[in-house]
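Aim 2 progress. For GntR family transcriptional regulator, the working sequence is reproduced below.
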Amino acid sequence: MTTLKNSVTKGVNTKVAGQTQDDVVYCHIFDAILEQRLPPATKLNEEALAEIFGVSRTIIRRALLRLSLEQVVVIRPNRGAMVAAPTVEEAKQIFKAREVMEIAITELAVENATKAQIDECRKLVAKENAAFDLGDYGSGLRLSGEFHIKLAEMAGNTPLLAFQRSLVSQTSLLIAQYETGNHSNCSLDEHSILIDAIEAGNQDRAIELMKDHLGHIRSKLNLDSSTASNDLHVVFSNLLKK
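Predicted structure tokens for this construct:
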């Protein structure tokens, strides 16, 4: 089992100007989920987190509540919090929502993206590709998620940005839980090509590229009915029927 101290202590003293303690804790746990340092079903012990971050349990509780509202953490009455572990059906629904959201974001990004935002995205893609080249899959995955969040910022629609943050982190959980094969970045440069289309103002091209990109991500997930289960009744159902 992944230990909390090893999973979330990366840069715990880093604090951006204007951030509250709640923000710092939230951001570190959010990043740990995106980087898959906190895999699905990891228990998030409030006392351990409070010790790691050097804050009160009240602050930890508020950060976990915020993450639960984004559906990447599940808070269970009298049992505490854990990283969400979506079922196959929930995974399919999450990915469908992601597809709808990304198309809307792409349309608006083409209309509203600024030169500064385009340049920022290109720098982010360069960091993402460098991380994958170095074999740092966790950082690459996090940067890939940040790229899609930046697209939502380009769209200039606050509700879409909030939804996108939740869906990106939920997708990271799906990848951790259901990805098949090795951790290869088979979609290398798809982000760069997408940015080219957005910068050129070619909405139809950008939408088509986004659909292809999401298709590649979806193709790496095993979401068919034969996916392994951690439910003992499901695992041994053949014996129970005899």
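The chain has two domains: 4-83, 88-219. This observation will guide construct design in the next reporting period.
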